[in-house]
Amino acid sequence: MNSDHCHRVAEQRAHRGFTLIEVLVAVLIFALLTAAAYAAVDTLLRSRQVLHARAQSLQQLQTTMSRIERDLRQAMAVPVRDEYGEAVALLRGNSSAIEFTRAGFSNPLGQTRARIEHVQWALQDQTLNRASFAVLDRAINSKPQIVPMLNGITGISFRYFDGGQWRNQWPRPDAPPELPKVLPIAVALEIETTDYGLLRRVVAMVEPSVHSVSPPGGNP
Known about the structure:
With about 220 residues, the protein is an alpha+beta fold. Helix content is about 30%, strand content about 30%.
């Protein structure tokens, strides 16, 4: 009798299932494991997004610096006229913007246009823009094509080497009449960025010996 009773009690316990407390404990453990897994995956995704954004920012910076250096190295002595028909200097620039004509304007579609291009680099609202004109001698209604090249720029500075010293403006205010007909020997560029700090470049435009010239100092 005792044996049969014990057997029935064992069967009842075997078919009884989990208690409510046991189910709640299991659910709690599962929830904690799920939260930990989600936090790990979220951290991984955020890190991936940050790395991707940094990679894109670095690529944009490299593309911009390469583009502006290539433009400057291809600057050429081609006279142009502004929208009022007045002849302008081969290169016009101050500490915050520069404008000149460059060669090597690719024409893969064989369009009827020149293989030279008039470009302008200028900073606006912390964005470095490259503007290009479809024609060299502009009309009043000539509109440039503006391409934003680099964001997060807090400051920019162009300096111009005339063979003796660095200038903040080209042509310089005291330039003789023939000077606007020539290009500077080199252009120095400083860009202050929020992500990479201060970047400096010196680009030779005429004289290859400019690479041995000392960096721009305090000359006006």
